[in-house]
């Protein structure tokens, strides 16, 4: 993502805003104390808790029961000591998911409770031999402060054979508060995906994303580029703006005129904002990354098009879509597309945007590189491939001024990483390339934090 002289608060808020799918990675398991054939352990998801979500999983409690033991769960006491402000919370609830670890709200235990520093949940639940899973979840108020954090711990578990007290080694684990900016069926849109976030020189937050109107699938489909705008650090957001919609171009329906994968960049010197996306015309049932979903040349309807819109008023209004395909794409390439993320404005005003493409029909005939502008977005040039066989990529400026490109690398176990010192004309593999960061077969996100 971009390297800009943001305030510490603005950077914190950028990190807190969550618009898309979040990784459900768990914190280390807490040590558990046994009691008469019963032991308990605690795990916490490390992702933030989201405003606008009905359920915000905070803590998973696993009760292990020995074979040939008849045990019933009778209650659980939790502490919120250390939480920044209990008023951020609307309610808390406990759920039983039997022997399944993923969160589910299907089986509540007792009634939801109002926030307090100590909360006791009561309910009779027979426990089976082996694993029995409970989840503590919360619902946040819309007014919850994005700068605040929630602290939870399990202090005791009441059973029919006695009390179990987990020794919670991560009792101070904190959950950040974030916002579910767009959700399924908001404004009648089936799915929102592929977010990119940036901030303007005025401190305005801008988030762009796919508005997948009919279904969640990729192009070709009825997809427009939407934008959400906040002038108060993400506490509130203006109504969605549709900033790129190719309508029924060429007499074809909306589902054959989809735009996807937005990338956004802010010129720190002029304040102008650029948003790029890939547009497919025709080719129903095709995908720009597969087979002839996009083809060599420039022709609309055959080659996927590299599109741009601009804003000169802090994201309030946007230009009509501009087609940059002939300016940027080599005629022999099968595809050139923006990488869906935020670009970088260097200290001398050079704009740096990660891009990706295809050089042939074969599965691995792909590349990742940069495109740059030295004249504030009037013209752009595309660098040499930094990584071949990769695609979606993210860029960050290193301390010595070089640009590091972190690249999705689907056909190997690890992500590819390349470095350029001349804005994409030549590249060297980074020491961590193809040997360090495990490839999840997904786009990444990269942020330099000073």
Number of helices: 2
Kindly state the mean pLDDT as a whole number? 92
Most strands sheet = 6 strands, antiparallel
The CATH architecture of the largest domain is 6 Propeller
Q: Indicate the structural class.
A: mainly beta
Structure, described:
This protein is mainly β and 450 residues long. The chain folds into 2 domains: 20-179, Immunoglobulin-like (Sandwich), CATH 2.60.40; 186-429, Neuraminidase (6 Propeller), CATH 2.120.10.10. Helix content is 3%, strand content 40%. The protein contains 2 helices and 30 strands. Strands 21, 22, 23, 24, 25 and 26 form a 6-stranded antiparallel sheet that branches. Strands 1-3-8-5-6 form a 5-stranded antiparallel sheet, with no helix packed on it. Strands 7-4-10-11 form a 4-stranded antiparallel sheet, with no helix packed on it. Strand 13 and strand 14 form a beta hairpin. The longest helix is centred in the N-terminal third of the chain and has 9 residues, at 8-16. The radius of gyration is 25 Å and the shape is elongated.
Summary of the model, kept short:
With 450 residues, the protein is an all-beta fold. Helix content is 3%, strand content 40%.
Provide the descriptors you would attach to this structure in a database record.
2 domains, elongated, Neuraminidase, 30 strands, mainly beta, Immunoglobulin-like, six-stranded antiparallel β-sheet, five-stranded antiparallel β-sheet, disordered N terminus, 3% helix, 450 residues, 2 helices
């Amino acid at each position: 993502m971009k390297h800009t002289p943001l305030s510490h608060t603005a950077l914190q808020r950028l990190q807190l805003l969550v618009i898309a799918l979040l990784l459900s990675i768990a914190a280390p398991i807490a040590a558990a104390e046994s009691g008469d054939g019963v032991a308990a352990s605690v795990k916490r998801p490390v992702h933030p808790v989201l405003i606008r979500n009905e359920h915000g999983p905070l803590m998973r409690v696993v009760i292990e029961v020995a074979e040939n033991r008849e045990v019933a769960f009778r209650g659980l006491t939790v502490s919120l000591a250390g939480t920044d402000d209990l008023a951020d919370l609307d309610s808390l609830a406990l759920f039983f998911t039997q022997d399944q670890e993923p969160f589910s709200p299907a089986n509540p235990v007792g009634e939801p409770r109002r926030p307090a520093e100590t909360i006791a949940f009561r309910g009779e639940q027979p426990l089976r031999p082996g694993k029995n899973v409970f989840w503590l979840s919360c619902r946040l108020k819309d007014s919850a402060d994005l700068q605040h954090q929630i602290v939870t711990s399990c202090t005791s578990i009441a059973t029919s054979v006695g009390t179990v007290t987990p020794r919670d080694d991560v009792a101070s684990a904190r959950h950040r508060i974030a916002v579910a900016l767009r959700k399924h069926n908001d404004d009648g849109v089936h799915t929102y995906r592929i977010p990119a976030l940036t901030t303007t020189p005025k401190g305005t937050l801008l988030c762009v994303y796919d508005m997948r109107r009919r279904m969640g699938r990729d192009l070709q489909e009825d997809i427009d580029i939407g934008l959400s705008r906040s002038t108060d650090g993400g506490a509130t957001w203006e109504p969605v703006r549709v900033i790129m919609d190719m309508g029924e171009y060429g007499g074809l329906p909306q589902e054959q005129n989809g735009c996807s994968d937005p990338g956004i960049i802010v010129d720190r010197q002029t304040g102008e904002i650029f948003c790029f996306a890939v547009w497919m015309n025709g080719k129903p049932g095709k995908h720009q990354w597969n087979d002839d979903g996009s083809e060599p040349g420039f022709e609309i309807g055959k080659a996927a098009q590299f599109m741009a819109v601009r804003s000169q008023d802090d994201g309030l209004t946007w230009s009509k879509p501009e087609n940059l395909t002939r300016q940027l794409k080599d005629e022999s390439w099968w595809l050139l597309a923006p990488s869906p993320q935020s670009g970088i404005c260097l200290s001398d005003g050079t704009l740096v945007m990660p891009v990706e493409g295809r050089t042939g029909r074969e599965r691995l005939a792909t590349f990742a590189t940069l495109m740059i502008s030295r004249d504030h977005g009037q013209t752009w040039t595309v660098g040499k491939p930094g990584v071949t066989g990769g695609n979606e990529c993210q860029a960050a400026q290193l301390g010595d001024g070089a640009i590091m490109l972190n690249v999705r690398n689907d056909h190997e176990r690890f992500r590819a990483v390349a470095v350029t010192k001349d804005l994409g004309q030549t590249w060297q593999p980074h020491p961590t390339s193809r040997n360090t960061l495990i490839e999840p077969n997904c786009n990444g996100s990269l942020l330099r934090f000073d």
